[in-house]
Amino acid sequence: MMVIVIKLCLSILLFICLLEMPYGYYQLVRFISFIVFGFLGYSEYKDGQKIQGVGYFILAILFQPFFKIALGRELWSILDVVVGLGLLVS
């Protein structure tokens, strides 16, 4: 149940990224996403869902806040929607 709430909250945060927000908000979302995707990756991998676990680890690397991956606002917006919907579906 907790994992469902975490996924829902992160999805909402990612959808809010579509709005015009201060830059600090995007940094906060990247940091939260990094932690959540790392947790989900570990949880799935530990439960034997290795492919999903690796997928979450890849998302953690993509969203990590330490070395910014410059994809441009439009591509990040598309990624936010796709990942947010993916979290809701899973």
In short:
The chain is 78% helix and 0% strand. It has 90 residues and is mainly alpha-helical. The longest helix is centred in the middle third of the chain and has 24 residues, at 23-46.
Task: Describe it.
The protein has four helices and no strands. It is an all-alpha fold and 90 residues long. The model has no long low-confidence stretch (mean pLDDT 91). The two termini are 13 Å apart.
How many separate helices? 4
Radius of gyration: 13 Å
Count of strand segments: 0
Helix content: over 70%
Order of helices and strands: HHHH
Morphology:
globular
Averaging pLDDT over every residue, what do you get?
A: 91
Q: In percent, how much strand structure appears in the residues?
A: under 5%
Q: For the report, how would you describe the main beta sheet? A: none
Structural class: mainly alpha
Give the low-pLDDT segments: none
End-to-end span in angstroms?
Answer: 13 Å
